[in-house]
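hey so i finally got around to running the thing on that chain from the lab meeting. sorry it took forever, my laptop kept dying and i had to restart like 3 times. anyway pasting the input first so we r on the same page abt which one it is
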Amino acid sequence: MIDPPLALYVHFPWCVRKCPYCDFNSHAPRDGVGDLPFAAWGEAVLADLETALPQIAGRSIHSVFIGGGTPSLLPSTTLEKLLDALRTRLPFEPGIEITLEANPGTVESSRFRDYCAAGVTRLSLGVQSFDDGLLARIGRIHDGREAHRALEVALAHFGQVNVDLMYALPGQTPAQALADLEIALGSGAQHLSCYHLTVEPNTPFAFDPPNDLPDEDAVAEMEETIGDRLADAGFQHYEVSAFARVGCECRHNLNYWHFGDYLGLGPGAHGKLMTPKGIVREMRHKHPARYLEGATKYESGFIQERRTVGTEELPFEFMMNALRLSNGVPATLFTERTGLPLEVIAEQLEQARRALLLASDADRLRPTARGQRFLNELLQSFLPDR
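ok and heres what got predicted. didnt touch it at all, straight out
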């Protein structure tokens, strides 16, 4: 098989305060963010990369995504050193997309200017809402004024800005969800990610859920209104939760959905790499303290888990990504990325088409509108041992 594009994901695990709905690998320091081990984190990431270099020898980097946590807590000098060090060790493709996640409560104009100068080309801003009351209900550290200001500063410094919005928030009405969307559209942002708030296991909301979450009818109205309004504004609904103007799609995330490769560095980061033995999935040590000690204290180094994906798992793994895309992928990509002939899932494809979940197009693997709505049902068709 030909190596697919290779992306790099770097995880920064700290934030100012843990939000009650969040199940990401993020940690709020007890003694305040001023004492965070920024330099030690950067050194550990580079040491981690050094151990991983033999796995990706000769390959260039398609995109970089620095996520978290709240990477916008990073001093610009630390980020600049990290990106410079990555460039000296890895060939970056021309015009590479380098994305940084940011929280409106940590925005400083001078820092954003320096991030841009260091090479960041795209900012992903976790606004969630512009409504003070709704932000307080979901535990965000910023208010509506700070969200407006952060978006203004981001657009002044970066050519590409993604705005994250959440809907189905506690006590939220469809009118409030639309009001948030109108503000984001009015800003000039070219990419919006619109997420349904879900109550995840082992989060504060799971143990003490809000008693005024919108009902199914209200949520359905929000979803429909958001989709219609964005279509009217010229945005393409190109992925389950992602909307963009033409040419402004997130290239890093598209690589995931096309079943490309990615090396994950940082606490709890996941990776997927094509190797001579097959597709290998990895996860770094999740706890920040253990990860920082990984180079010296643990026999496995920075790796907590590593496994080769079984042949029987590959169809589901591929479809779980590809069918998130509204336009799907070329049918030939299945063989290119998995090494398996399309015939191995011919029966499942036919069943999904008969159920009107998959489009009847021999040249593309593409969900229908019904398939997008009932994506889990569609994906179950490709689970092993069905």
